[in-house]
Amino acid sequence: MRVVTLKINDQEMSGREDEDILHVAREHGIEIPTLCQLDGISEWGGCRLCLVEIEGSAKLSAACVTKVSEGMVVNTESERLSGYRKTIVEMLFTEGNHICSVCVSNNNCELQDMSSDLKIDHISLPYRYPARTVDASHDLFIFDANRCILCTRCVRVCDQVEGAHTWDIAGRGIQSQLISDLHQPWGESDSCTSCGKCVEACPTGALFEKGKAAGEMVKDPKFLVYLADMKAEKS
Amino acid sequence: MSVKTRAIRKIDAVKVPSDDKRWLIVAAAMRKHGSAQSALIETLHSVQSSFGYLDDIALAFVAHSLRIPLSKVYGVATFYSHFRLKPQGKHNCVICMGTACYIKGSVKLLQKVDQKYGLKVGNTTSDNQFSLLEARCLGACGIAPAGIFDGRVLGNLSPALVESQLDSWLKESTANETKSPS
Amino acid sequence: MIDRKITQQISSAEDLAKVAAEQLEWQAQYQHRVFVCMGTACQSVQSGAVLAALQTEIKNKGRENECLVSPGGCQGNCASAPLVSVPEQDLLYQTVQPADVEEIVDALAGKPVSRLLCDNKGDFFSKQNRVVTNHRGLLNPESIEDYIAAGGFRALLKALAEFSPDNVVQELQKSGLRGRGGAGYPTGLKWSTVAKARAEQKYVICNADEGDPGAFMNRSVLEDYPFRVLEGMAIAAYAVGASKGYVYVRAEYPLAVERVTKAIRSAEKHGLLGNKIGSMSLDFHVEIRLGAGAFVCGEETALISSIEGGKGLPCPRPPYPAESGLWGMPTLINNVETFANVVPIITNGAEWYATIGTPRSKGTKTFALSGRIINTGLVEVPLGTSLRQMIFDIGGGVPDGHKFKAVQTGGPAGGCIPEEHLDATIDYETLMELGSFMGSGGMIVMDDSSCMVDVAKFFMQFCAAESCGKCVPCRVGTAHMHDMLDRITKGEGTMEELGQLESLCDVVKFTSLCGLGQGAPNPVLSTLRFFKSEYLAHIVEHTCPAGVCAPIGQDIRRPTCALSP
Known about the structure:
Radius of gyration of chain B: 19 Å
Radius of gyration of chain C: 25 Å
Strand order of the largest sheet of chain C: 10-9-13-11-12
Oligomer: heterotrimer
Distance between the termini of chain B: 36 Å
Order of helices and strands of chain B: HHHHHEHHEEEH
CATH architecture of the largest domain in chain B: 3-Layer(aba) Sandwich
Strand order of the largest sheet of chain B: 2-1-3-4
């Protein structure tokens, strides 16, 4: 695999040509915000927070799905980008029903962290207050749709790592929702192995363990990288 | 909900859900496409054209036969607006809501149906006589506003025309009822 | 139906010429030929009954041996459906009813039935230039024999015999043909990328998922010229080295589906599709795939995942389908009209094609004229025609004494162009500069009875309902924009909110994953650019100048409850 040199935020660096901008930047200490990307599962490119400017291109590119190339000049921070990112996170807050103070993931939530990183102090878009449900039918876990941001990390981890494909997204557009099997209660799903990987992969308090009180749910999806590496070695 | 789960569990991957002949058409559609996962949409089309809609039994049968996860089948079935998960009425009225039809007043047609029969888009009358649907664009813009009544495209619709068509369906059904021996 | 059916295999240009000559000879034994349009619009007003009545009438009169009645294609002026043409007399009859057929048959040799005559010399017909729709409906769309007699499949066999695959690609490049699906990417360049890609299997896909509301050109071309589209695909397959093709067509177009399905079968039967086409090295198999009601599937990566049996979710590009498309293989995707243009280019040469149109937009384009216009229907004009010629000469202007307000082009990603820009020419760049888009060719005319805020809301409702939901800005942003427009039409909008709407347009346009989201703000942006006063009337004065959101002069806000203090 060829190694290419490129510039990210005026910093010279090199990376393999099969790597994406997000990972090369990360290896060199430059963090690009993202919510749908998770190491150990495939890229999705849906949250649009990792959009960056590439010199010579009128369009913005998602860093997680754009491969580096020789001589590429990338800019990950600008007033325009941070404005877009703020609006996108605002959209996520208005799309669901997020009340941090009562959430199991309070202080351990990637959406919450993102809004503090982006210095979002108020939401200017109108809240949509959708009517959403909580599914507590599973013995071990709970799915609270109010907190779901449809990043599909659970769908991908369940399909690609566990091989169960219990989760998927039903409907489309603003009506999209996370469902298990044929839109059955999670607890009645035949395909679910109760492995809990979806819970670890979930960036918010949408999927969590039973018995956790507000602020008690801590997630650590790093093991997914080891599983992915092991799988790659085996094949 | 638990009843629904058990019914789905019982479905054998090889056997068809019932001896209804229409399942043979569905099975043939799957075979025609090599029973591959890529046959999903074509198979759902054949279920819907045979049975009128997709119920859980059908979705589970298709999922098992094509070896596709249930949630994926459900996701595909709900992603495409053509697929219906609820049974439809005996008759079907589709009003086009494309740009040309909209400009020429197709909203008034829907309002008329709602006003006279209390029926909103996507619903079926309580007596299962007819369903009201809307279409994105029928490509019949030259004769806007257009609609499809039981598979027949009609153009230059007016609220009165829609009303007379729906009334003729109702009349036909009352006529049939009086005729029936019971 | 009286039809001549051939059974032989066609394995050379000589065979083809022989079949064509025999068919022409057979046609010539009929003194009179009559075509009844069997397109969607005409069928909806019972042209089928007219066809049957004509055939019965001729039989009853014992004139079967001199008169041949055939189903024909779209004449274009769908507003006058059902249409019957008598080519020998150069006559077109409009709004024909089964009761009229006796008169028509009696008039075949004599004086035309004047009360049914349609002016087929008028501007609507004379100002068009038909390349893709050159048979003007005088071709039985279901007869491969008639297609061959009219010169069909000659281009394919010519390309196979006289051109190398490279030559075909070069010819396309020289012609200057650009993608007719909307974005206008040079077709030859796309073909050459796929041709250069190395893979064991390549695919050719015909995108017939014409989703733009108010557009029906592709439906018409597929219904009338199914063989020509297939022939274009086969030439493409030869040029890029593909052996498998798909026609992805909307389920909403049952007639087009039926015709293409039959056409595939009949071309296969005669050795014009399948293995060793024309006894030469080309193997090309075509299958049809039905869409299931998702506008986003017109986007090429979404279309591919739909053919693969999944949801139509777009994927970030690159990689482009030309490198990694269907099942990861190099895939050529072109629109129906693009493929239909290939045949005349190969037949008449790239130089000829390049003489039509403007320096950067070559050839002709079909448009679907509809809305508040006298001559609704399908038209084909050279690119570079002005909007004014299109709407007032060909289209006949706005009916009922109303005043023209705007023309909407480009579907949900397009824009509304006002009166002052009517002299602009129809080509890819000019429309883009006006904040609109060529799109697939829908042209919806609006007059003073249309409210532009309401129109913007209509398109936003469309985009929100058709958003696949994969990326956040399109999924949530379009829903917010629709709500804001809805509040404005109800008199509940504020100036602050209007500013917020404009900034949301910017976010959604530049951060969405695919063309659907990136184009969704265009109808709002273009109406804000040209019709801002209408927005202000709704927000500041709470009135709707067009009388759509409330009768003219009335307050558009919902009446407050009589019981409230």
